Amino acid sequence: MQKVAALFLLFTISLWAQPSWYYNLKKPDANTYIGYGQASSEKEAKTLALQDIAAKISVQIKGDFSSSTTLTNGQVDKQVSNTSQQKTQAKIRDYKLMKLSFEEGTYYVALSYENISSLDKFIRKVKAKLPKVNERQNRYLAQTTIAQRLKKSLGVDIDFGLQRKDGLWALTYKGLRVVLDERDFGRFFATVPNRSLQLTTSKGSSKLYEGDVFHFKVRALHDGYISILTVYEDGTVATLVRNIKVQNNITQNIPDQEYESELQAAL
Question: What is the CA angle 12-100-91, rounded to 5?
Fold first, then answer.
C-alpha cells in the first residue's frame, strides 16, 4: 500500500508542475492543429510539439503477423509473432508559437498549424493588398493553372512571382511570400493545351516507365525556340535542352541524333 501511495503522490506532483494551459488551449478553427512539447531546451520542446502536430495530421501504421505450427514427437508447437510500426510524416511550415513558458528547469511549448493548402494561404494574404484593376503578369506565369485559380478566387489578375530560396519554391506578391507545398508546386508544370504547339514522345504515349529511352516530338505552327526543363521531386529544376530552333509545321525530334546524350525515364 505504501508503494502505491508513493507512486500516486509522484504522479500528482508531476501533473501539478505543468502550467495550467498545457494541453488545454482551444483550437481557433477546425483546420488548425495544436501540438505540445516539453523538454530541457526550448529547441527540443518545439521539435516535440511539431512531432505532435505531425502525428495528428498523418500517421502510418504497418503491422506484420505470422504464425507457424510444428509437430515434434507427437507434440504440437505453435509460435505466433505480431509486430507493428507507427510512422508520422508531415511537412509543416508557417506554424505559430501559441505559448512558451519555463518552469522548474523545463520548457513548455504549444505550437499551432493551419492545415490548408499553400495557395489558400496565399490568397487570404493577398486579399489585404488586392488591386482594383488587372495587373500585367509574367507571360509564362499567366498561362499556368495557378494563375487561373488566383483569378477565379480574387476576381482580378495580379502580378505574382515564383521564387526559389533555401531549397524551397514560394509565391510572392508585394512583399508577401508563401512557401508552396508539393501539390501546388506541381500545378505550375501541369499540362496546359496550346493550339500552336504539339508535344508528344517517341513512345506514342504520354506515359513513360522507368528505363524507357525516348525523345520528344515537337511540331509548332510558328518558327521559334524550344527549351525543355526537368523537375525533381525535391523542387529542383534543371534544363535538359535550351533554345532549340524549330520551324513551323515541321515535326522535329528533341533531342535529335546529333545530341550528345539521350533522355531516359526514371522515378
Answer: 105
Give me 98's grid cell. 501559441
**C-alpha dihedral (241, 247, 248, 254), degrees to nearest 10:** -30
**What's the angle, vertex CA 92, arms to CA 90 and CA 93, rounded to 5?**
155
- What letter represents residue 182's amino acid? E
Percent of the chain with pLDDT over 70: 79
Helix (H) or strand (E) holding 99: strand 96-103
Phi then psi dihedrals of residue 10, to 5 deg: -65, -40
Nearest CA among 233, 224, 182, 231 for reference residue 199: 224
C-alpha span between 175 and 170 (Å, rounded): 12
CA-based nearest residue to 58, from 24, 92, 97: 92
**Confidence (pLDDT) at 209:** 87
The pLDDT tens digits of the residues spanning 162-215 come to 998 888 889 999 999 999 988 888 887 777 777 888 888 888 777 888 888 888
